Amino acid sequence: MSDNAMGVGEFTTDEAERGSQYLTFICAGEEYGIDILRVQEIKGWEGATHVPHTPAYVLGVMNLRGLIVPVIDLRTRFNFEQRAFNASTVVIVVRVQCAMAEKTVGVVVDAVSEVYTFPGEAILPPPEMGERMDGSCISGLASVGDKMVMLLDIDPLIASSIENI
């Protein structure tokens, strides 16, 4: 990495004053964003070791330089139609707060998209969708041109996915 290059999760003071940065990715044709400060790294899909008696959205575990990390398929977690993984399928390794500890988890998505900086006023609250939809994992919505990016609150999404496995 050059002196001017920044890795995933790095953030300058000027950028912090302009807004929050989000890594966006594609899942089932929609674009989602997660706080880039939660992203540890992005890896190409190489498979996972299946663990018996886990929910269908838990693909298994992977060895990340000596750390055993659970891997979650976001399509399955969101009850989206399944599709075969391909060359654009990636694992976004994130750090999440679960109960009293920080955990590292891999999240499989269709493809990585962009890194956007959204000023606070550009992020709109999620709409009220009624009692049948759990919107606790959506922190807001932001527009980029004519498309909408759904910003995820990764803590409740991942914590509810892995706490009981």
Provide tags for this entry.
165 residues; 3 helices; disordered N terminus; 5-stranded mixed beta sheet; 10 strands; globular; mainly beta; 12% helix
Structure description:
The chain has three helices and ten strands. By secondary structure, the chain is mainly β.
Mean pLDDT: 86
**Poorly predicted tracts of residues:** 1-11
Q: Terminal Cα separation, in Å?
A: 38 Å
The major sheet is characterized as:
5 strands, mixed
Strand content: 35-45%
Number of distinct beta strands: 10
Helix count equals: 3
Q: What order do the strands of the largest sheet run in, or round the barrel if closed? A: 8-1-2-10-9
Structural class by secondary-structure content: mainly beta
The amount of helix comes to 10-25%
Apparent shape:
globular
Order of helices and strands: HEEEEEHEEEEEH
Summarize the structure.
With 165 residues, the protein is mainly beta.
Could you give the topology of this structure?
Layout: H1 13-18, E1 20-27, E2 30-35, E3 39-44, E4 58-64, E5 67-73, H2 74-77, E6 90-98, E7 101-109, E8 111-118, E9 138-144, E10 147-152, H3 154-162
Parallel strand pairs: 2-10, 5-7
Antiparallel strand pairs: 1-2, 1-8, 3-6, 4-5, 6-7, 9-10
